Queue: 4 jobs
Job 1
Amino acid sequence: MSVIAPKFRLGYLLKGIIDNALWILVIATLIAIPAIQIILIYIDLPVIDGILWDPFRTLDAITHPERALPLVKAFMQTDLFKVVAFPGFGFAALIAAAVIFVERKMLAKLQLRVGPFYCGKVEGILQLMADGLKLISKEIIIPAKADKPIFWAAPVLFAATAAAFVALIPVAPGWVVADIDLGLLAVFAVIGFFPIITILSAWSANSKFPFIGGIRALYQMVSFEIPLILSVLGIVLLTGTLDLVDIIESQANFPWIIFMPIGAIVFFICILAELERIPFDLPEAESEIVAGWLTEFSGMMYGLVQLGSYLKLYAFAALFVVLFLGGWNGPLIVPTFPAEIINEGIVLMPDALVIKDIPGLPLFSQEMINGTVWFLLKTVGVIFFILLPRGVFPRVRIDLLLHIGWYKLIILAFVNIFIALGLVYGGIIGPGGIL
Amino acid sequence: MSERILPGLQLEKVDDRIMTLNVGPQHPGSGHMRIILKVDGDYIVHCDPDPGYVHRGEEKMAEYRNYITNIPHLERPVIHDSCNILYPYCLGVEELLGLEVPERAKYLRVIAAELNRCVYTQYWLGIYGIFLGHSTMFMWPVGDRELFIDLLEKMTGARVTHSYFVPGGIRNDVPPNFEDVCLRHVNYFEKRIKEYADVFYDNPILISRTKDTGILSREDAIKLGTTGSVLRASGVDFDIRKKEPYDVYEEMDFDTNVLKEGDSYARSKIPWLDMFQSCRIIRDALQKMPKSGSVRVKLKPNPRGGDTEVYRRVESGRGTLGMHIVSKGKPQPYRLKMSVGSFRNLIAMPHLLTGEKLGNLPPVYWSLNYWPVEADR
Amino acid sequence: MSSTNNTEIEKIEDTSLVSDTEKSLSDSISKKFPNVQITYVNPNRIRVNVKREEIIDVASFIRDELHFDHAESVSGVDYPEDNQVEVVYHLGSYTDPSLSKQILALATRTPREDIPHPGNDNTKLPSLYDVFPSVSFHERECFEMLGVYFEGNPDNRRLLLPEDWADIPPLRKDFAIKGR
């Protein structure tokens, strides 16, 4: 966008404004309002809190915002909001963006340098936006002999699978996108997709280095899935359920990490391997095979893969918190909603303007906010420990990696299962136990 | 020659099982050279190094320049270790022209050479970290080497390619408070490199990747004529600074580090241990240096040597650097041959890499202390 | 090699710094091989001129009896006025501590053609690869830079020059750098 700006003339500005206003008027009267009328004939008006909500109430809510809260609350219960904003994609994407920024800054401080510094006034906060804009504006180059349908589909599939994974994690009581009875099994099914997508994208690029990277990623992910699943088997034995919400509720008094420390360690190491983070980032080993299976992706496809990667990071950290650290449980640190606002209304100016009777307060219940805060704190702690090895360890070689996955971690996971069995049969935990 | 002959091309048969990989010049893990590997699954069956991508014809061009104009030309093979490359050249030309170097110049030369050795070793250590995937091992050495580059800038005026040594001494004297600043920098530097032991050399993943890989036995190291840290990591105690001391190295008090295992871990540890000895030498030289004096012998314009030849050698960051100068009574040398440590260690590369796993290529290859630009000259 | 060579190396007159090691080395070589010419015996540097037929025997003697075990550098020097190319091997010792300062320069000459066909004319020398394996890459470089073919070197290919170099070997004096 490097046009030289023309000289400002008032006549042109007024002409532009009147043009736009005219077009908005035309489109609104001829198309928009008739469309709304037609839609309203066919859909049912919502019933919120026992009151039929017709368009007049909506317009009323626009002018008197204190009466709009029930509409907002009803909207937040719908699936659309849960998928898009909280606890679904928007929330996870925000956390992913914050994680990318924190990772770069933390790594920089570890390495005695500063990190992103110039974009944005405060310590380079806007660096992420700049990177996103750069990726969008780049040309997408497809190798000539690549398998085009699969090559185009692979990053989209990757981001979609990561989003599916995020959808299964409960964040606060009652707030989960997909409430499935066999939640843990669904998680493992989704995790099983990732190696397939990796090998598809590596194969379709039709080049030597992505091929080697894809094979290595396949080895790594497959050999670390088994200890991942086995280490969680202990928790399932102790709680007797596969539903993630029930697992969290069973940790109301104590988190499971106290009784299953070995399982937690094995799970953590498997997380690092599944996320392809250092010390297990062989599939993207830059100095040996250029960028591994990501070599041929450019522009927004690379952006999608990175987004999927960081969504996966958040989801795995959240899964660790849910299974081992107690999910949203924690002592009440959020104060209750002030009771006088519910009873007497908000006082805007003393003795002058008092708004009474705001229906629908409080917007979020206290336990929900408390649960979300504790969940966020624990997830941030786990993410910190996932990001830390990047500054400390070099990369592991492929045969040492497979040795760790197939021998050491499976043995430790079995030890963990025996400990769990011992606890159940000893009558300490579980049905009929002491605790 | 009317028809075009391309005698350098080679034809190869394509095999089903063995894949030919070009770890080529456009590869983040190869430096400025190409290694042609034939790989069978994960094992390397044949390795053929192909240097020459940065060949600039230094030796040929040196025959067209006289002894003083050769100085900025000859230091280009390794830009941050330039003093050590010019060292045998200056010693050789001084022998040819019969010059006597003043005392203060000798000590300053020793200091500059040791500073350069540390600067080179830090950069090499940084790239070793990158090859292994350890980004902190890149950032810390490259950041700490800025201390010494600052010092060299105060001494010589340039951060790299200093053009500091001339036949007859050094080009200019150091600024007045140089000794204090240098001592402070050296003390801080030594504290910093002590911390490398925790993050790099005691790091279990680094040890598991580099220990017992690329083992070079003592007999092979001697037979193949390797030099420098590769030789000392295989158990041979040979350091030109001790065996054939030049300038004032006889009066300096330092040790030679020798390790016996001969694997990549030992080869990566010896340059780091040598840096501690360099700090000792610098402190010693700062103490013993005469406080004032001339630093340069005045030369006639276009000096000529007689009909003789000389061969002088020096211990640089990569190994023994020998300079063979043949002069025929003209202001230009008749033939100038540099025998550099990287080129002599290149022969160990096919010897070590054949039979290794492909994942061991970066640790073994870079641990040979190989600087591609220097080997090509 | 002609004995009335006007490109011979001068001797340094001051022999006071020459120690017994160099004298004993030069004496033992000239006693065993009376045809060689000891060009100079300087402090820590000896130079021995050998004909190309004898060079392998002399090199084997130096390796076995005198304990020199590796070659530090192999440099080729072009003498167009004699129509000869000289190759100088600088040999050093790692194993013998008394010899660690010494460098023995072993020099030999080979005839030179005006229009070289590297590998196919009579600019040939026997390779010292079987005696000192450390010379292999140095001899390859000497071959491509000066056109001296080393018989017995298992690998006489290009090393530093590009694959499509079709000009004369660059370190010859006939090859002029453009612009100088």
Note: The radius of gyration of chain C is 17 Å.
Job 2
Amino acid sequence: MTNRRWKGGVLTALIAAAVFFGCESWWQSDEDCITAPGDCVDVRPTEGQLVVRSSINSRNPAVPVWVFRGDFENGDLVLMDTLTTAGTTYVLPADQDYSVLALYIRSDGDTVVAVDGDGIGVDEDDYCGGVTCYTVEHAEVDVRLN
Amino acid sequence: MKRWLLLLALTQPAMLFGQFDRGGAMTYESRHRHSALVEVPFLDHDVSIGAFYRYSISGERFLGLFGTFHARPYARAVLVQAGSHFYFQLQEYRFLLAAGLDKKFWINNRWDVFLTAGAGLTFVDYRGTGEGTFLGHKIEKKEGLTPLVRGGLSYKFSRYVFVRFGYQYSDARTSDGHRVYVGVGGQL
């Protein structure tokens, strides 16, 4: 009885470990693995998109924007631009966080600087035959005037 | 006659909600000291989610100590003044960590009125900045001490599961501190 209980305990511990640590690699052989998709990008991308959404109105027909690497207070300015449309996209190095500032004048004459930040990342997925596919996670910032 | 009945009903809640076994409730509160809730204070599109823990310190007085933490799990645009005519519009995550006292006023075996009062710390995380300075204007993080007050009704579905709903106030600095409060939890 004690022996059976001991075996039960070991089995429970093994199942718990499999669930906890991720059992995929224990029972998945090479035949079970997923084939890489046809549009697989197997070279790690070095660039991604930073999508900026801004406001354009009669008071602000041209909006100055600043793009910094990291938090803007670090002073690592990447580019300055003036937007005349309600958004734009910049192609910038991946694996970086960016902050974007846009300057507006309100109808009451007050100045509003809209700040937002996001990162351009790269996702990795492993497939059969040791193939790794990469996907860029583009950054999106919202500096529209509320 | 009707007026007398109405007055009686208002002053004697048991008439509205049924009988209350006070002794049973006191025993229950003394034996099941731990409560936990998942809670959602919200107002319009400003929604927070968090956890609340209560420890009963007096089963006879239905009094407990609580600790709570909740967060707005998404960024929301807020306006922070940095000069007489200068503002930053920031994408803000807001958090609240608080503790205090929680008192129940039982109405019957299922319903109670709860009153929560405490103090805590509200703090923020802004996307794209910490406390930066731009064009000579510095971002001031809108955080610090805040009271936390809640009141409302609680309904016990079963021996262990209950819901709470009512009102909450905390000083949220950059948004309205008055919230609708909803929570679901259990008592062990």
Note: Residues 2-11 of chain B form the longest helix (10 residues).
Job 3
Amino acid sequence: MHFDDLAHNWGPLTASGLAQGAIYALFALGYTLVYGVLRLINFAHSEVFMVGSYAALITWGFFGLDENSATPPTTEVIGYVVLGVLVAAAISGITALVVELVAYRPLRRHNAPPLAFLITAIGASLVISEAVGVATHRNQRGVPPLIQPADAFTIGNTHVTNLEILIILLTLVMMVGLDRFINRTRLGRGIRAVAQSPDTAALMGVNKDRVISLVFLIGGLMAGIAAVMYLFKIGTTRYDAGFSLGIAAFTAAVLGGIGNLRGAVVGGIIIGLFENYGSALFGSNYRNVVTFVVLIVILMFRPSGILGEALGRARA
Amino acid sequence: MTTVQTILRWRGPDGGVRGWFGRQPRLVRWTLLAAIAAGAYALPYVGEVPVIGPQIVTEGVDWRTALFNISYFVLLALGLNVVVGFAGLLDLGYVGFFAVGAYTVALLASPNSDFKTNWPWLATVPVAIVITMISGVLLGWPTLRLRGDYLAIVTLGFAEIIRIFAENTTLLRGDRGFSGIPHPPGKHADGTPIFGVRDAGPYYWLGVSLIIVIVLAIRNLDRSRVGRSWLAIREDEDAAAIMGVRTFKYKLWAFAIGACVGGLGGVMFAGQNGFMNSASFQIQFSVLILAGVVMGGSGNIAGAILGGALISYIPDRLRGVEIAGQDAFQYRFLMFGIAIILIMIFRPQGLIPSRRRAMELKDRAKEVAPQ
Amino acid sequence: MRQGLVRALGGAAILALVVGAAGCNSGSDNDGGGGSSGGGKNCGYKIAFMGALTGSAANLGINIEQGYELAIKQYNEKNGADCIQVAKFDTQGDPAVAPGVARQAVSDPKVIGVVGLPFSGESEAAGPILNDAKIPNISPAATNPTLSTHGWTYFHRAVATDKNQGPAAAAYIQDVLKPQKVFVADDQSAYGSGLAEAVKAKLGPMVVATDKTSADGKQTDFSAIVQKIISSGATVFFYGGYYTNAGLIRKQLTAAGWKGTMVGGDGVKDPGFAKAAGNAAAAGTVVTCPCAPASEAGGTFVADYKQTWNQDAGTYSDVAYDATNIFLKGIDEGNTTPEKMNEFLKTVEYTGVANTYKFTDTGELDPQYLKVWAFKFDASGVDQPVQQIKLTS
């Protein structure tokens, strides 16, 4: 156990952990929304994320950008980033919708037992990741160096880069936007109603199918944005990139309180920090172990999470 | 009734093939089953059957090795079927039990092991069974109170933790692995070992014998109070608890039995392979076995056997075949993923349905509120 | 009604798949119907290749397979088409798959030699089978020293081991790079950890910190190890592992602003490293290899390889070429059974394009012929030879 490593690097680990946590938070939103409404762990969500990352890379590839290109001028970079985010979000959203339509809706029609939903979710996850894996020959794909990491400011030995600031800001903006959407708009009310009681909501005139599709779409959009942030932070993607991130993001959702949007953010940040601290303490090969142990401990002692499950509950 | 209609009406009013089978006198049933078992033992020689023999036999892998692979996959499918099919608990970390069984053998028997005990293979088998059962109970104790979906993720987590520890601790030797794991005992008349290195046939026969024993044991369990409790838990856990079924105890039983069978699979694998390392135990393996159980028909033994055989046989058969520039073996997860989705939508009770299961699903479908 | 239909369709689909696959396969049973199909003297035999043709480190296996196949092609041009047949077996580099594949290979009585297996893990798994079947095998790439300690009389190795490569890499770091602090990490594979241990042992106190990563292809986010390297102040980072992980780490190190040099072993010596890291980040990385540069290869090997496969020869392609040619020379001299071939291998001294080969009684290469070279990646992602490293041990 390397306590000195942890102590010495606490600053950089925290900065990196916050950025990572922000990505987890965006990613976790998809899990938490779907679970809040359908009581289903959408295993395919990690693949939705991965597909978004490839969509952004392919879009940039159309402009001739690949991992060996030079960094374009700043105005162009902004354009590319915005375009990448839009495309990734769109493709992820569409993928999520397709998964819902093809894999889950028929099961809802038959009132299948929850086990069937879970198994189908695993099947969907497998199909998407394997299809991409076969198409890419299981090779990883590099990201064009659009954002050159530069220190924005320095505190002690901690260099906070512009990328990390961008990620955190973007996540905050998305979260605030989503929060207002869920709490202030009519569609958001519909989502909360279906989360609380699907049949009653239907009786009250809420179109259940449309709400569920909307929930998947929103989750997909968030995942697509998270995917682009991930691309810039890690610099590469692969057909199985979704798996370990998916586990971490799901843990974050549960930690914060599944179904609770603010909980997803809190959970994401905590998981991001813990993973980094744990890697410093035990070695980076134990990173996933830290996540799982956190998950198991939470589920055993406080399954409703830190902020409690809340999507269905009316909030003051 | 035309011939086609007769053929397609397999699920006739009196239960089709299975109904017919159930109505035969006991002697006939047992004879048929014995014939099927004999056929299983004869499979290594199927390559010599004219015309269809060479089509069935695998190309890229030795046929007897492929048969052995089928046998331990079937064993694992049977074990997972107890957990998922009978008790309705989604265990995504089943490969963990397989790993525990294999590592127990390796630690006790391999010359590389730090324990330096160097036991023969046979002596390690009961120890492996006990240890996997204990690990099943240890895994189940804290987690079985969780909801179904959380249970799935937590079991996944346990399997990953086991794999990461296997990879990273010096005791379990990570990727360097254990070599020189002894094989099952026995010598031919001329002194050469029965369970040698080059012929996987004896391992396959051992596997089939083990499967028969396990099938008999599980079948008896299924027809006892334990099996009925599992059925009640699966259908509606709260109602079962109200009616006095000790749900926690029986769920733990399911886990322990599933773990024990999984460990047996690991023991067989270690004994045949002679070498194993942490790379042998990936999460995808659990998902593959789950796919097999689901495809074959969860909740019934014949379905589990069929499913287990399919998930092992089809990829091995496709090794060496090229589809779109890649070895078809690469497509196996894609194929099984699609198969899972299709099965869950169109035929959730699996290829060989358990009639009980089919009825359960039909009842549920009736409860759907009009859309 | 619908269920019966679904059953019928499902059964038909499975049947079609199997028959279709069989149709693709039935050709292979008809090849080489015994006897000599060419005009050459000792024809009708097979030399098998076993190794990873698919998977995350497949490039290494494919390079070797192409070297092996080139040698056979050239031999067949001289001695009649299909004189010696190619028999490729894909193990995916997986030790769980290797035994089944090995049994398949040895069950063919025409196979009298095996070129393979390239990875140490799978060699451990398949070794007992090849030895029990008494099929001589020459590994052109497996560098784990323990392979020759099992007493396998049919095992031979055409390259130096990590016992040589590790200290050589350490010597290069000490003598040429001359850092104050070194960081060593590995991917915990049999190959990677063995190599890293050897380097650590030789560098001693120069190593300020160590870490481990997940196996190759299993991890994409290396931010934790990147942090450690940066905060340790090391100017040289040695990684024992394969090119996919190494490339990603190098890329993330550059993105985090680390300016030091990365050093790797032969598992990193592949264009895949530059692809994973990006050419700019990969430039300057040093890799060692118990092999000579392809440009040093004698004869027309480099040109022939490029012409046949439309790619430049990769790591160990030349060694595989030589290993295959050793078998072919044995066949030429009338050693057409596995036992005779093994006897031939015990005494052969063969000069090929990459090296001269003579085997000790444990199957290792004679110490006078061991060589380790250092290479450096240039700005276009190609590894260029730097110098041969003197072996002191």
Note: Residues 121 and 190 of chain C are 6 Å apart (CA to CA).
Job 4
Amino acid sequence: MPVAEAVAVGQELPSLAKELSQRRIDVYSGVRPRSIHTDEAWAHQKGFRTTLAQGMMSTAYVSEMMTRLLGAGFVKGGTLSMAFIKPVYAGDRLTVHGVVKEARPEGAGTRVVVEVWCQNQHGEKTAVGTASGLAPSA
Amino acid sequence: MSQFPKLTYDALTVGEEFVSDPHLVTPEDVEAYAFAVDDHHPWFSGPSPFGEPVAHPTLMANQALHLRHGKYIVHAGLHAKMEFNFLEPVRPGMRVRSRGRVIDKYERRGRQYMVTEYVTEDEGGTALVRGQFTQMLIPEGTRHAGR
């Protein structure tokens, strides 16, 4: 697990790439009729070009990135706040990004705050927010 | 028998509460979630710093997000914002339930939103995850210009 001293403000985290297949969306959301996530005809009726991934899938991707960075200090003691600003469609490819914005003392460790965002294959941001977790001091 | 009215902005009351049924978290839940989000961290199926395997921190988010479905027929909606505070790990074998309370509703740029605060607890009442989320209502007979 990385220690606080190894995390620097301004540090860019390794990005994650995620393919949003309909099959993964089906498993995430559960297949139901009259669902904008799994019923393409219903999604069209509601004004979307095809089915959408749940915004929550993007929070799971950020959770993965933060767990890779902080390990147990994210699983217990982590925070995550995201706004979903653009639909993510079945077939999209998302890239998940993070940059360390702050590291401040908290208890016996350091709270590491990361600016996070997801971007689709067209370079458009689909979700933005912040996440944090606790890194132990050396 | 419970009545399930249609969810409308007018029917929704700030302060109203929701509660889910308890759900037994199984290894199969964790495995399915790992496939869905393509995250197969070894802690989800083997030893972790917490001893036994843990679930993805966001595993039970849909239980919270679907709270309103236990009381209303929901025509359609979009998720606008989500906040989590991960207090304790969710583990396979736990029976978890989520409780929620509507803390705000508002209209902005012709769209209707509801804000719910929630907590997901184990069977002993220990809070595992707390947070809040904002959902946009898509009224019946309307389309969302989401292209």
Note: The first helix of chain A runs from residue 22 to 29.
